[in-house]
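Standup notes
- DV: blocked on the single-chain target, sequence here:
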Amino acid sequence: MLVNGKPASEYYGQFTWDKTNSALQGAAAFPAQPDGRDVFLVTFFLMPDHTFELFYLEGTGEASPTNWVVTEAATDAKKRRSGTWAIEGAELVLGSYLRCGGATLTGHDALSCTLTTPITTTAAQDQTATCWLWFHGAPDDQLFADYVP
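- DV (later): unblocked, structure below
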């Protein structure tokens, strides 16, 4: 299967930790909840051994394919998930959490990832975030210390 003109394994392989030393990150809006939550931010690392580390938070803010702002993160909505990723046809699948396809953003390869299982708020399910390389550290960085399983 081809993704943006490349074999799927090559396309998704370009985003693995051993090639990038970085994560992919994106955000999506969802219907506002009674507590004000209306956006999620997802950051994930694809490891070359086909495991992943995913960091998810919800809060209030705005999200578009090219920009997002989370003005206030919900204190109970910082979650860490781990698992295995696989390529199924032309899609990248991160456990039961995300299904991603190829995308292009500002002339660069990216991913269009749909939340397939709610991690905190059910209203976030089926919302799609455009994810691109986010040049930041590693899954064990202090930035992710307060994300809970």
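- Follow-up: The chain has a mean pLDDT of 95.
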